[in-house]
Amino acid sequence: MNSNEIIAKLPYSKPFLFVDEILKINENGVEGCFTYDENLDFYRGHFKSQPITPGVILTETMAQIGVVCLGVFLMNNQLVSNGLIALTSTEIEFLKPVFPDEKVTVTSEKIYFRFGKLKCKVSMKNSQNELVCQGIIAGMIVNF
Q1: What amino acid positions are annotated as catalytic residues?
Q2: Strand, helix or coil at 26?
Q3: Potential cystine with 139: which of 32, 58, 85, 110 (Cβ 3.0-4.6 Å)?
Q4: pTM for the structure as a whole
Q5: What would the DSSP string read from start to end of 63-103?
Q6: Is the CB of residue 131 less than 8 Å from the CB of residue 96?
Q7: What is the spatial order of strands in the sheet that 21-26 belongs to?
């Protein structure tokens, strides 16, 4: 399964798709990137005079690249058409702000994948290769 096929299988679309590209992926992890367009709606009010990307959006970006993309790859077409990977837990440490038009790279290392649950150590770096945030994110296959 190539990167474009994985992105096409994600259960998101713009403006809530936070994956531009998967740089590398294998059974142990994934690396991908996303650029936060300055026209994204949440920048209008977060914060008025100095917009920054909300932590919940940074977490979502790490989850989409680091858990959902990896989960789709690991399932390798075994997801049923109505199956999704739902977030089950997060523990994130935020270290630096991310500004509009900033490109970030997310790297994820699989901790385990068993019984339909994927748990990963995930980090995000900015274009200066500075650590922005890091933590543990877990998700589970859910069929609706």
Answers
A1: 46
A2: strand
A3: 85
A4: 0.93
A5: HIIIIIIHHHHHHTT-S-TTEEEEEEEEEEEE-S---TT-E
A6: yes
A7: 21-26, 29-35, 103-114, 117-126, 131-143, 83-94
Chain position carrying tokens 């367009």 = 37
CA-based torsion, 118, 84, 9, 61: positive or negative: negative
How do beta strands 103-114 and 131-143 pair?
unpaired
CATH C-level class of 3-143: alpha beta
| pLDDT tens track for 19-74 | 999 999 999 999 999 999 999 999 988 888 899 999 999 999 999 999 999 999 99
Q: What is the DSSP string of 102-140?
A: -EEEEEEEEEEEETTEEEEEEEEEETT--EEEEEEEEEE
Domain ranges for the chain, please list them.
Answer: 3-143
